[in-house]
Amino acid sequence: MSLTVRASGALFSPQFSRTFSAPKLTLLRFSKPSPSRFTPKINMSSSASAQPIVEHVVLFKVKDDTDPSKVNAMVNSLNGLASLNLTLHLTAGPLYRTRSSPIAFTHLLHSRYSTKDDLSTYNVHPNHLSMVKDSVLPICDDVMAVDWVAEDVQGPVAPPPGSAIRVTFLKLKENLGEESKSEILGVIKGIKGKFAEINQISTGENFSPARAKGYSIASLAVLPGVSELEGLDSKQELANVEKDKVKEHLESVIVLDYVVASPQSASL
């Protein structure tokens, strides 16, 4: 795994970034799914109206020197959870890039639900529990999950293949008041209007603290692709203006980039 240290314009990230190249693993090709398996259960059109969405993001740190076939099996199993009727959207695979993180995560799962109850039911579903036991825990050193409700997500519920996703988790300083939290959420919500590259922004407070390692505010930005992600990072001066508005409230930041793969295949 290679490590590159360079200047970064990533929102809420430090002045340097760590880029971890993906492990040299084999190419896994999923069998072509039936139309119902990967089709979201609600309107996916780009003109979909704003609606509340429950976000679920899980980060995985695969053990060094894990057999590639076992990593493939994990990602295959994770993506297989898209067949559950509870999920509006689910994608899983290797991270594209790590901008800032105290833990060297390697993979990400992002899924969406209509309600907290749907997410709770998903978490205790037998297929989910057996997948975690058989495919995830044996090969992962660390797992982290953050859940939040985004009240006004606009656009498609399922980002199309090729979309770039930037996930940001914020750990706040102790004894921070509600007014400061509201200020931070307001700054994040306003980012979309300042950066044309972003198609969709989702943010909220984590409601699953036991699994989040102290990170309490989350955001997820969806961009058309990697080129737009690079364009976002080129606007360092504007990004610094936004970071300066909230950095005094922050203890730690995780910023990760992920690219949505086709459901038919994924490079692990």
The biggest sheet amounts to: 5 strands, antiparallel
Put simply, the count of helices is 6
Tell me the domain tally.
Answer: 1
Helix content percent band: 10-25%
The number of E-state strands comes to: 13
End-to-end gap: 13 Å
Fraction of residues in β-strands: 25-35%
Class of secondary structure makeup: alpha+beta
Task: Provide the CATH topology.
Answer: Alpha-Beta Plaits
CATH class value: Alpha Beta
Named CATH architecture: 2-Layer Sandwich
State mean pLDDT (0 to 100 scale): 84
The gyration radius over C-alpha positions equals 18 Å
Q: Which series of helices and strands comes N to C?
A: EEEEHEEEHHEEHEEHHEE
Q: How are strands sequenced across the largest beta sheet?
A: 6-12-9-11-10
InterPro entries: Dabb (IPR013097), Dimeric_a/b-barrel (IPR011008), HS1/DABB1-like (IPR044662)
Subunit structure: Homodimer.
Describe this structure in words.
The longest helix has 17 residues, at 178-194. The model is unreliable at 1-10 and 13-47 (pLDDT under 50). The protein is an alpha+beta fold. The chain has six helices and 13 strands. The strands form four sheets. A five-stranded antiparallel β-sheet has the order 6-12-9-11-10, covered by helices on one side. Strands 5-7-4-8 form a four-stranded antiparallel β-sheet. Helices cover 25% and strands 34% of the residues. It has one domain: Alpha-Beta Plaits.
